[in-house]
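User: tokens in, sequence out, please.
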């Protein structure tokens, strides 16, 4: 969609998104996910120079993070738009070996690195990064140093750990980018202060209960079997088995991370505050997506659909938000239960990726039948670009689906648009969500 086809509201929203993410990426220049959102918005407005500038920022972020293959791909996209762009040419020359060997086997470009096993060793030892972060969270290391920079000895005292062990762990966390070091004092980065301090409302450390659970890690222990089979290798249904217990820990730990994105989503959909508005939250989990509508509109009635143990968590969150009197539940499988009807909005937050396209269309048709005229369906998903290898977080999610589900995938915008069309919806609008790799697709009945 180009500037010429954006309506005034979409144009205003795109400009606001650019202003927001320019600010975010100035303070966090290595946040490539926010940079990807920024690039997409510039592309919508046909601001080619800004697209190229942002693409170079993304590539540089990948370089700094050691993701050299992704950096190369991003610089190549720059050269597709501007073949003579000097900085991209120079960076590529440093990042990849020469395409043509010079006489005697020497590189044809001075200074160009030759083949290296670095990526192999970085990848095969990545478990060490996970273990270091997990140890720091278990020790409450980030919380211990939240008030001010501190020495290893001081941090060790607060964490009830050895000074030697704390120093080595803090140095490693500094190498990874979770801490900074000046002299013998360590300090939190802005990201660590917000997401790894247990006293922060956006604390993400609790997500380890889900992300490092036996069910999730175990699925990847059987990845070769999943590749051979074309779906989850450790069981028949993986995480889509009825009432799978892994979703209880997901509901309990993921809610804080969803707050900015869910609030932004609720703001994207105008609602009539003069009458009760019905919102169906399918696979509600923690309930954050639906509850955001209840918080923004005192007339909103939220219906959450999920398995009973998960809905108990969502109900706790509804009571904590003070909206329990406008919160009800439907227990069971979205494929089997009766949705009811006359909904203004039906939400599919991070749910459709678990299923094949035919099942997704079946659910979308069922949702359309439950919407009132003019109602909207909202899909919140990890959406890769058409090349299916960028942006990394969304593109890489396909592997999670391969390992944990029989037929799930990370679908592109075009694929979701086709599903929606088959279900009878109008073409969707696409909206990046703040502080999240998720994208919202909104389609009217």
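Assistant: Sequence out:
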């Amino acid at each position: 969609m180009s500037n010429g086809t954006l309506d005034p509201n979409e144009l205003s929203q795109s400009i606001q998104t650019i202003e927001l993410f320019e600010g975010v990426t100035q303070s966090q220049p290595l946040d490539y996910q926010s940079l990807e959102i920024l690039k997409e918005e510039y592309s919508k407005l046909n601001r080619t120079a800004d697209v190229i500038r942002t693409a170079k920022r993304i590539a540089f972020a990948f370089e700094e993070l050691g993701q050299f293959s992704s950096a190369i791909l991003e610089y190549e996209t720059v050269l597709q738009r501007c073949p003579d762009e000097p900085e991209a040419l120079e960076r590529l020359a440093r990042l990849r070996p020469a395409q043509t060997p010079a006489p005697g086997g020497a590189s044809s470009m001075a200074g160009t690195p030759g083949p290296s096993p670095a990526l192999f060793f970085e990848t095969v030892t990545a478990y060490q990064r996970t273990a270091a972060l997990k140890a720091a969270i278990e020790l409450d290391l980030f919380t211990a140093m939240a008030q001010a920079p501190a020495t290893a000895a001081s941090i060790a005292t607060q964490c009830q750990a050895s000074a030697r062990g704390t120093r080595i762990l803090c140095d490693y966390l500094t190498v990874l980018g979770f801490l900074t070091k000046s002299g013998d004092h360590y300090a939190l980065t802005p990201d660590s202060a917000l997401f790894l301090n247990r006293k922060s409302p956006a604390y993400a450390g609790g997500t380890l209960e889900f992300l490092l659970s036996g069910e999730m890690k175990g699925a990847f222990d059987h990845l070769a079997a999943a590749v051979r089979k074309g779906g989850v290798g450790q069981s028949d249904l993986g995480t889509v088995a009825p009432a799978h217990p892994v979703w209880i820990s997901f509901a309990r730990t993921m809610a804080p991370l969803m707050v900015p994105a869910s609030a932004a989503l609720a703001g994207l959909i105008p609602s009539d505050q003069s009458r009760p508005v019905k919102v169906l939250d399918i696979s509600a989990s923690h309930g954050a997506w639906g509850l955001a509508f209840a918080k923004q509109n005192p007339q909103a009635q939220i219906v959450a659909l999920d398995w009973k143990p998960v809905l108990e968590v969502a109900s706790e969150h509804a009571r904590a938000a003070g909206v329990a009197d406008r919160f009800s539940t439907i227990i069971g499988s979205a494929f089997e239960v009766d949705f009811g009807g006359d909904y203004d909005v039906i939400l599919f937050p991070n749910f459709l990726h678990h299923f094949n396209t035919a099942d997704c269309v079946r659910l979308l048709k069922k949702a359309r039948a439950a919407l009132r005229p003019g109602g909207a369906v909202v899909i919140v998903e990890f959406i890769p670009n058409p090349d299916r290898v960028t942006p990394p977080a969304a593109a890489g999610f396909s592997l999670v689906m391969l390992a944990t589900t029989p037929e799930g995938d990370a679908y592109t915008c075009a694929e979701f648009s086709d599903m929606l069309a088959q279900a009878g919806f109008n073409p969707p609008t696409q909206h990046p969500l703040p502080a999240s790799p998720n994208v919202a697709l909104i389609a009217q009945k």
